[in-house]
Amino acid sequence: MYHRTASAPARTISAAEAASLVKSGFWLDYGACLGQPDVFDRALAARVLELTGVSFRSSLAPRPRAVVESDPEGAHFHWFSWHFTAWERARSDAGVCYHMPPNLGELHDYYRRFLDPIDIVVLKVRPAGPDGFFSFGPTNTWHRALVERARTLIVETSSAVPFVHGVDNGVHISEVDYIVEGDNAPLPELKSPPVTEIDRAIARTIAAEVEDGACLQIGIGGMPNAVCSLLRDSGAKDLGIHTEMLTDSLMELYRAGVANGARKNLDRGKAVFTFGWGSQSMYDAIDGNPDMLCCGTEHTNLPHIIMQNDRVCSINSTTQMDLQGQAASESDGHRHISGTGGQLQYARGAYASRGGKSFMCLPSVFEKSGTRRSRIVMELTPGNIVTTPRTDIMYVVTEHGMVNLKGKSVPDRARAMISLAHPDFREDLERQAFENRLIPRALYPALRGT
C-alpha cells in the first residue's frame, strides 16, 4: 500500500476552519456513498457567495449535498458524479450535476494516471483506533487512490461509521493533514423497494440456475431481494459473496448460513464487497465482523479478479434491450439516470469464471405517460447509452423466460429476444426485425409458404 506522508502532524480543526482552506478554482473530492462528509459540506455551503469555480467529484450521494443545494443555479459550485443516485439525477435534470462515465473497477487507475492531484479530499471515517488508523467503514471503493492523490487530506470522524475489516480499508493518522469532528448522526439508510410478482417470476428462473457453491454478485432492488429470499429458503449450500454492493438481502443469506463462502477459491469464508448501503441493522451486523472483507474496486470489480472464484453468478438489471442483445442500463435517451457501475466488468468476470453465469434481467414492459411500452425493442431509444454490448450478454431473463445469447447468430438473437417480450408486442417486433433484415424471409412466419 502506498503511504502518503502529511506535511505536518494531523491537527484537529473546526468544520468552518476546514472550509476556509477552500479557494476559488479548487477541485475537491468527497469520495463515495457513505464516505461523504456532512459537517464539512454544510460549513463549505455557508461560504457559497465567497467562492467561484469550485468543483467536486463524488459518487452515489446518499443524501442531498449542501454545497449543491446552496447554489441552485450552479454559479459557484459544480458537482461531478461517477454514478447517480435519485438526488443526483434530479440535480442533473436541473443542469447543476454532471456525469463522468467509468467502469468503477478502473477508478483507482483514473486517479493515478489521468487526473490531476486533488486540491482537497474530504472523507468520512471512523475515529482512529489505538493503531492510529481511521477506518473507511463500509466504503472502501477507490478511497486509497484519493488519499494518494490529495494535496490536502481532511477526515471527518463519526462514531456512526462501523469498523469494517478489509484490505487497505483505512488511512493512518500520519497521512492526514486535518481532522474534523463530525456530528455522529446515523448513517443514511437505503430502503429496499417492494417485491412485485414480475420480480418473483424473474427470480424463480434465476434461482433455479444458482448451483451450490456459486459465488454471487447482485445489486439492489425488488428482483435481487426476491432471488436472495428464494435462495435462502431453497436449501442452497455454501454460496459465496464477491460483489460490488453489499445489501440487506445478501446479509440475509449470510445470517441464514447459506452464504458462508466455504467453496470460494479467493477470500474463502469472507463476504467481499467494496461498499455497503442498506439498513442500520446491516451496519450493526458488519461492525467488527471478521467474516466481512471490504476491499477497493481494484479487487472487487476487475474481471481477472472476479473470475478466480468458480461458478460466479452475476445478476444485474437493465432498463432496455434491443433485438441484438445490447443492454442500455444507465440512461433514458440523453437523460442520464444512474451509471455503468460494475455491470460490464461483472458480466465479463462471471463469463470467464469456471462454470460462471451472467444474468441480465428486465421486466418485459413499463408504463410511461399512461401508455404501456415494451422494454425489448427493435432499436434503442435515441441517445440511450449501451452499458453492456451484445457480445458480452449471456443469459437474458424476463418474466416470460430466459435465453442464452452466447454463440447465437443475429437472426437467432432477434428471435430469442422476441420470445422474452410481452406477447402483445411480439408480432410487431418480429415484423420490424424482418423489415430491418435481422430475420431473413425464410425464418419470418408471416411469409412462409408465399
TrEMBL record:
Gene3D superfamilies: 4-hydroxybutyrate coenzyme like domains (3.30.750.70), Acetyl-CoA hydrolase/transferase C-terminal domain (3.40.1080.20), Glutaconate Coenzyme A-transferase (3.40.1080.10). PANTHER family: ACETYL-COA HYDROLASE, ACETYL-COA HYDROLASE-RELATED. Residues 278-433 form the Acetyl-CoA hydrolase/transferase C-terminal domain. Signal peptide: none annotated. The keyword Transcription does not apply. Keywords: Transferase. One of its GO terms (molecular function) is acetate CoA-transferase activity. This is 4-hydroxybutyrate CoA-transferase. It holds the Pfam family AcetylCoA_hyd_C. The keyword Cytoplasm does not apply. Belongs to the acetyl-CoA hydrolase/transferase family. GO terms for biological process: acetate metabolic process. Residues 12-187 form the Acetyl-CoA hydrolase/transferase N-terminal domain.
